[in-house]
Amino acid sequence: MNIEFLKGFVETVRTKSIAKASENLHISHTALSKQLRSLEKHFDVQLFIRSSQGVELTEAGKVLYDSSTILFDQLASIKNQLEPYKVWHRIRMAAVPDIAARYLMPALPKLQEQGHEVELLYRQSTKEVYKLLLNGEVDLIVAERISMHPSIWIEDLNQEPLYVVMSKENPLSGQPMVTLTELSNQPLVLYTEGCTIRAKLTELFATMERPMHIKTEVDFSEVILGYVGNGDGVTVLPEASIIPFSDRLVFVPLHHPEAQRTISIFSRNRTKGQKIRRFIS
Prior knowledge:
Strand content: 15-25%
Number of strands: 12
CATH superfamily of the largest domain: Periplasmic binding protein-like II
CATH architecture of the largest domain: 3-Layer(aba) Sandwich
Order of helices and strands: HHHEEHEHHEHEEEHEHEHEEEH
């Protein structure tokens, strides 16, 4: 007997309609009718009294319904008890490109050695990455920490300092660090609204009551570094984005206690998240 047939039976009882139940289960009316007849044939009983108004349970149907609800409760309990022992052969993870390169890519060989089939999704904005998790499209994300619903498990991985990126010709390029006051006098090349680094800078400048002069807004880090490399402004990037892009660029720490971002791992399933966390450093 197929357990899915019992699910169809329970849904039909709940809705008192084969048509409504089939719609809720995303199967055809004919397919569900066949499932119900299969159950009746299997148990050699009549489960429903059918009419133009819908369906009503027979006495035998009531017995099967009560037993089915108990069965599904037991199956749910078994599933919960086995949760810590799950292997999770297939794992879907997501991050923006720089975070994926720093934290997820090195973990792939370790996960594959354990028999996991890993699918890594990239998105250009952190907001899009969060959306993938909240919509249940991925099992886990690595992203900048933000407040999440209590149902989302979160664990911090690292704190990354922020760097001011500028051309070698910039007067600040020879300094060991750059202050917010100094940065406020520079033309900024930043991501468009919605970028977490931009939001952090906006917060820092507002706290110190300093102006922030945004000269250019772009969507990709490669474009930002192109502008900066040509001397058209400076930008601020996290540690994970600091790569040898050009011999014309200089990366100088932004001097402020809050000039950093916290990178965290997020999952809708605490046990699964903790299991995968062991492979991410």
